[in-house]
Amino acid sequence: MELSGGEILIQCLKDEGVEFIFGYPGGSVLHIYDALFQQDAVKHILVRHEQGATHAADGYARVTGKPGVVLVTSGPGATNTVTGIATAYMDSIPMVVFTGQVPRPVIGSDAFQEADIVGITRPCVKHNFLVNDVSKLAETVKKAFYIATTGRPGPVLVDIPKDVTDPRIKIPYEYPSVVSLRSYHPQSKGHRGQIKRAAEMLLSARRLMIYSGGGVVLGNGSDELTELTRWLGAPITNTLMGLGAYPGTDRQFVGMLGMHGTYEANMAMHECDVLLAIGARFDDRVTGKLAEFCPDAKIIHIDVDPASISKTVRVDVPIVGDVAPVLRELLDLLKSSGQKPDAEALMAWWQRVEFWRSLNCLQYERSNEVIKPQFVIEQLYEVTAGDAIITSDVGQHQMWTAQYYKFNQPRRWLNSGGLGTMGYGMPAAIGAKLACPDREVACVTGEASIQMCIQELGTALQYMTPIKIINLNNRFMGMVRQWQEFIYESRYSHSYMDTIPDFVKLAQAYGHVGMKIEKPGEVRQALEEAFKLKDRVVFLDFITDPTENVYPMIEAGKAHHDMRLAPGTNSARELA
Amino acid sequence: MRHIISILIENESGALSRVAGLFSARSYNIESLTVAPTEDATLSRMTLVTFGSDEIVEQITKQLNKLIDVVKLIDISLSDHIERELMMVKVRAEGGTREEVKRLADIFRGNIVDVTPTTYVIEVTGEKSKLDAFLQTVDSTDILEVVRSGATGILRGDKGLYL
After folding, report:
1. Which of A535, A556, B25, B46 could form a disulfide with B7 if both were Cys (CB 3.0 to 4.6 A apart)?
2. pTM of this prediction?
3. What part of A 303-362 touches B (C-beta under 8 Å)?
């Protein structure tokens, strides 16, 4: 089969089993778009801005576990993808981004729509390529998918000069079935001796804490994690990225940890004597003050990325490998050891944890007058029976969703945890809905975040992705306002927009349903109505309490036991 | 502590900037960086001199290993190794200083590789400390120009960095 470069690329995508490609055409990719036009196996989703393409591909990847694929043109098309690529990079999301490039003879001449996208993205991709010959295109695409999806996943960018896709130049096509890179050998099996040491340490623990992150979701290790946690009987906390990896409604689950984690999760971190960290990277929002992080604990860390181990916190038992097989091996070792965790110690530990839990740190002041944002999330949880795919943007609404929507399954909670990208939520919801058309998908957002990628409302109509947008409209960049209240004596410097669009009319202008909800009593009904509209995008504009803050909060640089609790909540120290 | 990291890296365009970019992005120190192709045209060998605590150097080697283009690396300063750097110094050599400079060059086993009526170019090879010592010995007002290659190195014995 003789194909041109443009045809080769599309054929590679078919051979790779790609369902959707999120993109936007332009000069340098016209040959590719022409090849795309002449087939219908790979469905193209035309976004309204290239950033939206990357977030939608990212959302698709997070719910399916398959790589998200993006196609954009050179120059501004390529640079517009940078935020989405960096978002995927920080959260280890498999993604392959194809960018057009100006023809080889003019590269480096400041040609029209030329940008050195390989150079620009180098620090935020797992790897990138410039294809300098059509004969290398298929092999490069194969490598890109292989690198993006193996080991610690991440985005890979392939930059393709226009003349490489010239329809007049055809070459024999064959998609390589395997690829081997002498410089890249991701490790999947853990070191047996280390796993043994971990098992011994776990059995010797008197106050064991399990801390798991996004790696368990990405590595499909939820079943193993759940089984191991139940066998050990210890409390477990999930990071923001790890929510859903362990059932959020289970008794052993003590909530999210970190800056806006629960009192019980953070206190248990502070007082544990053995910490089992799985697929987590000791991010600063999780650890708080490093010098006082888990002061009494021996630490076991399982991660596929050796560079994540002992990066910020020195660990005692490092295990490099894929979480699922490592956890399976660990579990088998524990079960065959003939030993059990010390029941007495476990009971005493749980007494302590339950005491912390009894302080009910997520309680908030109810109101019949003004809509409390937490209340909206609780209602959303009930109306969707806790079973929806939820995306979010970044800020207070993101934290409230993480706190109040109890995810029982992995790959249901999509948010930009690492980079913290406002504008992520809606396009990610579109990608998720395309991947799972039969599942409810809601985007929880705020009036500031949603405006960062609002144009994708057009995409949602064109491809009939009936997502529900839960806009917690408090007229502030809430998290910025909260920090300004706490740290800058309420000097609200530019965290308020004097003009906010009428979101109901805006939604209608894009062909969707818009609702404005101003009273707590209307929240439930509005949500029920919205989710009944199965084939419509519904924009629910909830006018919420502008003064509400996210609690608990560990202010930057403070330790786990140094939490700021909601007014009216007593800490253990105060009760003692 | 000072570390010398030897890296075998794919001889691809952009490979050098991946390494250099990693160091700037993560605020690691680079004292020197040298790179050239090896006997295998598909591979370059890079010698990178850095300094930092054990934790930081451990991160540096892990992050370097994570780069897809990096095939293999070792920290040669952790084993018995040979370190060499090439330096060329252009000095003013007139009148009485001509003889003095030549004597100094001899002491350091340097070669005078270019001579004009007013200048010498002296080539000195050795460890960083030796080259530093030479520069300190020559009267700084006589030094016109210094160029140093940055350190390269190799392990002694049959251990080494090869595929």
Report:
1. B46
2. 0.96
3. 305-307, 310-311, 314
